[in-house]
Amino acid sequence: MLHLRRFRAGDEAALADICLRTADAGADATGVFADDDIWAAVFVLPYVERHQDLAFVVADDEDRPVGYVVGTDDTRAFEDWFARDWWPRAGSRWPRPAADDTSRQAGTLRYAAGRRAGAEPYGDRHPAHLHIDLLPEAQRQGWGRRLIDRLGVELRGRGVTGLHLVASTDNTAALAFYDRIGLERLPSHNGVQAFGRDLASL
């Protein structure tokens, strides 16, 4: 049976695989980039390096992760760390995109290189943020809600007042899910939809 547990050292490869297999607006992104590893280096591995205590997984009968939630309790501090410590190490594998490169890979690498405290407005009212992904075998069974709630309880215990997440507007299933579990839609940039939750109500 599927079960929820904390992230453990050694889960990194499984989480990177889940990230890749759900990165294309919820679909498999294998082959979308010249190097599949970019996805996890931007969207999941920095979180489990800095905040293993804020990472939870849904695991199968063999205790293999098939879904996860990762996050930070302080978006501003995390983005400063990402820019100062993480991306200079992890991102050194990939050259800076040419100015005229309009590919999706180039856009993602530019996004990673430009992350910094205050670059996004959502952390002011909702200081924590998360990323969540589940493989098809863990979807439509309530695990997404449980993962977000579990992280929310952990954050509230630390005195965090709110959390947010950002999804592509192409990922219509995810948008519907976040609406369904009662997250608040926030003013957002073109192409993405941000959601917030007040943790005082948990």
TrEMBL record:
Assigned keywords, A-Z: Transferase
What are the coiled-coil residue ranges?
none
Q: Please report the stretch or stretches of sequence annotated as the N-acetyltransferase domain.
A: 2-202
Kindly give the PROSITE patterns that the UniProt entry links to this protein. Answer: GNAT (PS51186)
- Extract one GO molecular function annotation from the record: acyltransferase activity, transferring groups other than amino-acyl groups
- Extract the Pfam families matched here: Acetyltransf_1 (PF00583)
**Which protein, by its recorded name, is this?**
GNAT family N-acetyltransferase
Q: Which organism is it from?
A: Microbacterium radiodurans
